[in-house]
Amino acid sequence: MPRTGRRPGTSSTREQIVAAAARCFAAAGYDATSVRQIAAAAGVDPALVRRFFGGKESLFTAVASALIDPDRALAAVTAGPPGQAGDRLLSYFLGLLGDVAQPGPFLGLIRSAVTSEHAAGLLRQFLAENVLRQIAATLGADQPELRAALAASQLVGLAVARYAVRLAPLTAAAPAELAQWIGPVIQHYLTGTPQEALS
What we know:
Layout: H1 10-28, H2 35-42, H3 46-53, H4 56-68, H5 70-78, H6 85-97, H7 106-115, H8 117-138, H9 144-164, H10 168-172, H11 175-191, H12 194-198
Helix pairs in contact: 1-2, 1-4, 1-7, 2-3, 4-8, 5-6, 5-8, 6-11, 7-8, 7-9, 8-9, 9-11
């Protein structure tokens, strides 16, 4: 039986739990994964998981934060000409997902979002509020919340279609080709105006 109470090495224990949660969400999806299963995968008592994270929702957000790293995303996207931020954001996002043949652990979150509306809502909220709104605000655009939501819808939709549903033209397209099509759309969401979309 796993030991209760705090274990030595708080930081490493938290990281161990987050890593175990990422594996569980990727393997079973959000709805089918329990705190008890995550605790077992991490080799800790469920009470310790709840003490650190409170519950499954917070754990899902912690996994998203560990995989996406909002500070790194902000630095990667805003370090350069504002007119190319859309390309940089798309490149960063595709880098998280990895190659179609060998996707990275971030795909586990996407799969959870595909199979669970609750997980989808958590991921959308995290992307919009913790990542994309900061990027839009840093770029000096108005309505950063709306812009963040629009960009999130584009990125999550691409991830679902290319990596989960695996639409053949999208899986066959190279990142550079996707950037030519999608980069300008994301750029418009980040810095454009509604009138430009109609012209």
